Structures are given as C-alpha cells and as structure tokens.
C-alpha cells in the first residue's frame, strides 16, 4: 500500500468536503468528482499506474471540468449508478443533477450541464445517496429532515422528519429495499423502501416507512465500584430506561457474586462533535451496514464504527470497529467484492453464501483504517498523519485499487492498494430494485451467520491475548444475533 498527498490546487486552497468516483467511466484511468468550499464541483481523472510510469513528469491527476452553479460551499458529490449523471448539494440547499454533454468549450476537457435542480428546503444539505436504479435520491439536511426525491421529475416525494437534530449522513441499500439516515441527535434510523410503484399509483403517499431506530443499547456492569467511579459519565450517557441485560456467556459464580446493574449506553456522539458529516455506508452485496460517530464506554479509545447485519437491522450491532483516536466521520465500502484468498486461517466476519471478501475504509478525523472481512479481527492497514485538518470524505475506485481521502485542509490523498486477489464486480440491482417496488422486506435466512460470528469472536479473543499491550485496531463483537 502506497499513499501520497497530491499537491494540487483542488478548490483554490479551500476545504474539500466530498469526493466520489464514477464507477461506470469507460475511459482509461478513473474519473472522480470533488466538491469544495469555493462553491464549485470539479471533475478529475486519476491516471493509471502504467501512465504514471510512462510519463513521470505529469501529475497523477488530470483536470477535466469545473461545474459552477452553486452559490455556497458544496458538501457532497455523488455519481449516479449507470454514469453520465452527477448529483451535488451544499449550503445553498439545492441539489443539482449534472449530465455530461458532447460539446466542450473553454479550458475544460469534458462538458457538464445542469439537467435538473431540486429545491425543497433552504437549509444546508450535508449528504445524499442515489437509489440503485438511479431514479431517486435521498438527501440529508440541517433542518432535521431527510428528503426523498424523484430525480427524473425533479420533485420531492416524501419528507422524513423523525430526527430531532441535523441529519448528517444517508445511504441507500444496493438491493433497493431500505434507506439509512444518521443524525447528530445520536441516532441512526432505517426505513423500508416501498418503491416507485406505490408513488406512481398513489401520489403523495408514503413510500418509505420506519423500519428500525438505534440510539442506545443494553449495557451490563458487574462491578458496582466501576459504576460509582463513572457515575457522572453514566448520568450523562445513559438513558432513563433500564433493560434486562443478557447474562449469556457470563460465568455463573461471577453472576451470583456480582449483581448485574441494568443500564443502557448511548451508541453515538452527541451534537457537540466537531464534524459536518456522519456518513454511513452499505456493503456492495447489501449484507452489512456501517455507521459513523460511534462511542464505547469504559475503553481507552472510545471512538468506533458500528456494523449491523442486514438480516437483523432491528437488533443490536453485529460488531464494533474500535480503537480510533478521533471520532469516525465516514465509512465507505469498496464497490466490488474480491475473490477469496487461497490460504487463510482467519475467520470471516460473516458466513457468506458465496466465498468472497469485501474491503471497508473507516475514516476518523485524523486517520483511515482499512478492514478486510476475510482477514479476521484486526485492521489490515492504517493511514494517519496525512492531513493537517480533519478528514471529510473517502471514496473507492471501481476495482478497489485506489482510495481517495479528502480533507478540510484543502488537499486530497491517494492511496494505491495492492489487493491480493482479483475483484469480482457485483451485478447491477436496477432490475431487483424495480421488481421489489411495493413489496415488504422479508428477512433472509442465514443459518450460518450466528456460528460465524461466534467463531470470529473466539479468534478476536485469542488474538487480543497474543497481542496484549500492543496498539491495534480490532473489531469487538457485541452481539451474536
């Protein structure tokens, strides 16, 4: 793995708030977009390693176009599935859908023109996500709402107003069955997507229904002295309700001599977190959901990224990726899966129906950790000290060979990652998303999931014992489903 901070004047030395790759780009190299504090969206091309070796004097990144219609900083840029369209939004409260056109004028190599402008709120927009069919957009706003838009007709279909503070991140299931929103009110919410058919049949009807909400979970303390010592923290972080703690897995004698204190712990940082963004992500196969801004009690490094299983969205998180020195601001899955390793003794996170592995990047304010779902209970890479200011967004190229990291300091870093196996591209979900319109989500059976999680937990415990005293980013399993 090689990482380099590219010294390019990306946005007139102003912050870069978002970055995204165009996974349908058919040219050589990889096309990506950035949004920044200069109110502009810019399109770039990352040269291939062969091009960089042939012409070492030219920069690794080539400028393609500048899109200048926003009147305030651009907080998010996202390419549509299928390509040729790009959505951008920012502090002006407007979502602009750009389309690539043939004619080129001026200094730009490519030409992009606004195809639609979605207006429905004057508040800042922090994040957005496309539906897998490319027909809808969900946006996150500081007016405490998330909005679902029809990208083709340029109109708002539904306002999700369940959060009580800024909505700072959204994600759309690649299978087109649910949405995820995350807010600074310390909660993450999942909504069942009922599909375009219902919107067409009954205009104005709800097309997304609440599915699950998470802001706290049961916590078990067996040492009353610890609770007294942390009484002030407990009063601030614990909710008023108490729930029965799960004693499964505890030593019976310990449970008898140390009475359980039934409390609940908060899952996420509150609105004092100094970040514009809490960007969740969903794995390319739709099996795992990751969220930002997580916290853990009674740990030296409390910052974490929680992972939920698709089949159990209403349950507690499947595991937590802890050990970050700063709060997590974004998570991003590589858009493809990878062929399994030929020889690996590590237990995967989940028992996948088809042998494969997935790559996850978790960005905290000062570092990016890489996780491989087949590599056991530890991060396979850590990139830190790249930027002087907080990281804002991360993006993978189509084949998972490059990762771009954007920062408030006005620079972006590019990591070249040598994958040990070949990428396996996930087929498009456009057909499945449309066929699922109006259908209720049915949990998918997965008999091997619980056993796989339990086995991986044993690996994590054994590895932690071997590496006692060493600093390591490792998942902590908090639920066996």
Produce a short descriptive summary.
With 481 residues, the chain is mostly beta strands. It has helices at 49-54, 196-201, 224-229, 231-237, 252-257, 430-435, 449-466; strands spanning 2-6, 16-21, 30-36, 41-46, 61-67, 74-79, 85-90, 94-101, 111-119, 125-130, 136-141, 146-150, 155-160, 167-172, 178-183, 187-193, 208-214, 216-221, 261-266, 281-282, 288-295, 303-309, 319-324, 328-333, 337-338, 359-364, 367-372, 381-384, 391-396, 402-407, 412-416, 423-424, 475-477.
Please, could you describe this protein's structure?
The protein is mostly beta strands and 481 residues long. It has a single domain, classed as YVTN repeat-like/Quinoprotein amine dehydrogenase (Methylamine Dehydrogenase, Chain H). It contains seven helices and 33 strands. It has a five-stranded antiparallel sheet. Strands 1-31-30-29 form a four-stranded antiparallel sheet, with no helix packed on it. The radius of gyration is 22 Å and the shape is globular. It starts with a strand and ends with a strand. About 17% of the residues have low confidence.
